[in-house]
Structures are given as C-alpha cells and as structure tokens.
Specification:
169 residues
Amino acid sequence: ASDVVWILNYLAIAHARLGNIDAAIADLEQAATIPESIGGNVGQVINLGFLYCYLGRPDAAVERVNGPMGQMTPHGRTLRALVLLCAASQRGDRGEMKRMERVIRQTATDPTLVIDAHLWAGDVPAAERALLRMLANPEYLPDALQYATPSRRTPGMPGRARFDDNRDA
C-alpha cells in the first residue's frame, strides 16, 4: 500500500503541474484513504491540504487538515500548522496567522519551515534573518542554498501568491 500512496502522490504532482487540477485532487483524495501502518494517512491528508490552499481554497484546506488524521509526529504537526497558516493568510486572519507561526517556530525541526512560516505571515525580514542563520551554519548550508535557489512554480496556484511574492522580496 505504501508504494501505491507515493505513486498517487507523485501522479497528483504531475497532474497539478500540467494544470489537471481535478485529477490531482482525485489522486490525493484516493491516496489519503489508504491507511499507513500507524493509522490514517497523515502525509497525504496534509499534502491535500496544501494543494487546496495553493489553489486558493482555504476553507477546503482547513476542513481537510482539521478532520481525523490519526497519529501525528512533531513534523506532521508542523506541516499541519503550515497549511493552517497558509489558509489564515488567505483569509487575512492575523490572530490565527500569529498563532500558527508560533506553533511552527516551536515545533519545526526543519529550519526551512520556519522561513516558510515567516513568508506566509508576511514577515520578510524575519525570513531573511532565518535564511542568513542557515547560511552561516555548515550543518544547514546545503539546505539553505537549495532553499535560496529559484525553482519553477506550478501554474494555476493563486493561493501561493502571497508566499511567492514575499519569497521573491
């Protein structure tokens, strides 16, 4: 079942990049129903939440990641908070944005997720400081360089506009 989940996940990414949004959603919805060894399929539910949020559907994103998901690791809780921050950013909910940004800073083991949180929250100077700290640390330098490298963006993702604009800044 694990292989099927990841095949569906990568198929969803391909569909999204080709603009086949309904097919991407269908693939992730199917993947999210395939249980992992510890219960629900947390990873695919979170990926689906991100897809909905990037599509500019914050209500669907929140509904998806607030449903039953099974046991979550600290990393899973951080990613869930990032989906909720994305949705709060689109809704203009400053209180929820601050709350989710704080959760991410407290739970993230990956410093790039903290940068993402700052960018979703619109705090470009904090994102810059966090990236500079990563660049100064040999342990995080490869990740920082990869993060700073521009990448192609999937078209048709209006929900990412704020994040992308802040990252460009």
